Amino acid sequence: MSDILSGLEPVRVFHYFEEICAIPHGSGNEKAISDYCVAFAKSHDLWVRQDEANNVVIRKPASAGYETAPVVMLQGHMDMVCEKNSDVDFDFEKDGLKLKVEGDFVSAEGTTLGGDDGIAVAYALAILEDDTLEHPELEVVITTDEEVGMKGAHFLDVSDLKASYLLNLDNESEGQILTSCAGGMKSRAKLPARRVEWQGIGAEVKISGLKGGHSGAEIHCGRANANRLLGRFLFELSKELNVGICDISGGMKDNAIPREAQAKIVLRPEDAVRAGEIKESFLADIQDEFSVSDPQIKIELNIESNKEKEFSIIHPTDMERILFMYIQSPNGIQTMSMELPGLVESSLNMGIVRTEEDGVCFSWAVRSSKKSLKFYISDQLAYLTEFLGGTYWYDGEYPQWSYRSHSPIRDMVTSVYKELSGKDASIEAIHAGLECGLISEKMPELDIVALGPDIIDIHTPDEHLSISSVERTYRLLRTVLSRMKG
Asked: Which residues have C-beta within 8 Å of that of residue 363, sequence separation ≥ 6?
């Protein structure tokens, strides 16, 4: 293994983070990283439990003098969002990340870094390893498949857990202490797509250069959604020209705002020039609309050949229904909180579109801090899908994490943060989803906060982790644990 991060402080945190990055650990591919955590625990003579979902629980006894202190849980997830630039040759199933250090930041070459939430695992292992740190009894809970519906947290058995306090380490903003979050679900729709033969010239449409981002944390930024732009462009073409669609696709994860989308289409030869003109006009409009949020948007229309041939295209009637879904489906922010000004209350993100043999599938990440709105958005999607003759379902539903007016752990963390930094912590709710909701549903008396270091542009290949922030947050975490004697 390389030592790209050797010498960075805190040394043991970055040691474990680099080891984690060398092990493929995308959602659904976590057995190896789960086994790594188990092997760590056994090598340090710590109690460990690994369940069928590959969740790992590690327990460390209290330091001398801390035996009567309440048990503290440290919690994060081991999976990462696997996004890469289209020109990068990388296999998330087999390859370790290619790390680089530039100034104060660690990133990966052309791919997501997985600081969300690999840094939580690195923090936890470094703390478990450190026998000089004084602390209460610790329960480290590392879950799986958080990024695809929090499946690990759903499966987690808490019957043997004793924690009174939970420090969730899945936040990406130093100095921001989270006390509540939205709930969510994955919504799915499939519209039928019969096939017919049609003669014309083939062309490829590609939309790229978008910023993307986390569909919860960045949904308020107004960034362009590549799937929605592709639907708009195909609609613009169809308003004036005879267009056939062979294949459409876009996005890689429903919880990431899609950065790229593409389509294979068929045109009449006499329409090729006009199609190019429509593309240029549409591109100018889009670049104007998103000049602040996505200044690098590109739309390409490449004619494969001027020679006509037979193509298998989606039946025109079914194509109309698919375009209707693209255009009419709700997307983005739906409501803003009236209790907490500036907080997004409910939203959805059309994250993935895929063409299958007999239909086109759409997938959204739906989020809301109010359960009723979450299911109302789901009902909207179901009504629209079924009206268009398709099939709708949802999975991965998880609850919101509600604010507690009385929270000793919040008071402790904010006090220590002020002492160490000289600044007041920001007490906030977020629109992104955290496992805190599911865990608190299973352990209602658990007092919870979420914290973490600065990680920028998560869920995109531009993700980068602040080295200095990792060090400051680790010092905060260690100090909090050492103060929890009584």
From this structure: 186, 187, 188, 189, 251, 254, 350, 351, 352, 353
Which residues are within 8 A (CB) of 170 and not within 5 positions of it... i.e. 6 or more apart? 75, 76, 77, 116, 117, 120, 146, 434, 435, 450, 452
188 and 350 in contact (C-beta within 8 Å)?
no
Catalytically annotated residue among 18, 30, 79, 454: 79
146 is catalytic: yes
Regions of the chain where pLDDT drops below 70: 1-2, 486
Give the HSE-up count for residue 67: Cα atoms under 13 Å, Cβ half-sphere: 2
Report residue 283 as tokens.
Answer: 């591109």
Summarised one tens digit per residue, pLDDT across range 226-276 is: 999 999 999 999 999 999 999 999 998 888 999 999 999 999 999 999 999
Q: How far apart are CA 461 and CA 348, in angstroms?
A: 22
Tens-digit pLDDT profile for residues 394-416:
998 999 999 998 999 999 999 99
Say which amino acid occupies 69.
Answer: A
Instruction: Indicate if the alpha-carbon torsion angle 20, 183, 188, 51 is positive or negative.
Output: positive
C-alpha 321/C-alpha 319 separation (Å) is: 5
**Residue 79 is a catalytic residue:** yes
Residue pair 31/114 in contact by the 8 Å Cβ criterion: no
8 A C-beta contact, residue 259 and residue 81: no
Distance CA 453, CA 468 (A): 9
Spatial separation of the C-alpha atoms in residues 411 and 318, rounded to whole Å = 57
**The total number of residues written for the chain in this structure:** 486
The catalytically annotated residue of 19, 137, 146, 254 is 146
